[in-house]
Hints:
Blueprint: E1 2-9, H1 13-32, E2 36-43, E3 49-57, H2 61-70, H3 72-75, E4 79-87, H4 94-99, E5 129-137, H5 141-160, E6 164-169, E7 175-182, H6 185-193, H7 196-199, E8 203-211, E9 215-216, H8 218-222
Antiparallel strand pairs: 1-3, 1-4, 2-3, 2-8, 2-9, 5-7, 5-8, 6-7
Amino acid sequence: MKIVNFATYVQDRTRVDASRAEHQAYADALREHDRLVIGGPWLDDDGRVRGVLLVYEVAAKQEAEALAQSDPFALKGAIADYRLTECNVLNSNIALLAAALVPADRRVQRKEPRVADATPVEPDAHATQTYVNYAKYVSDRSHVEQIRPAHRSYERTIEANGKLIMTGPFADDSGALFIYRARSKDEAMALVLEDPYHAEGVFETYALSQWRLFGLNAGLIQNR
């Protein structure tokens, strides 16, 4: 089974920075041993890393809990909280996921000071970015089922346009993980707002964040 770990960092960034290299080595080892499907940090609206999103491949949820607690981020107090949710990976576009991978030499954020009154220009300001939407549905399952056909039709449309590269409905139908490709947060937000699940009130809550994809085990997705 696949378990999503949606984790938020503590405010003390020194703890995060001190354990980042060990976490990345841990994640690489999990991926090589077919325990990690996909993963990377998620960012806030100011472009600052606020947490990490990982998808494990495990036999039971207890195993995912053990993997989460054994992560150097958790062992060194860099994680404020995390949520583990079983999901089913659907509508995955392996080629676009692979294209979204961040090269190893660009994984550390630049820290040079910015000049006052200057408009920062990032190297990839106009490039396609990856965004993740962690959505929870309303408790009325009959309403979710009623809107599902329209939602699925919408998914097929944006998938065909290369805007949706993976969907991971939660196993208990309480929500889903959506991974989009867009040139800006506004463009990604439009994909959320135009979804019938949003328009018809199925999304009780959702968290849309830019996601920097650091690792992918394509075989675990293709062989679901």
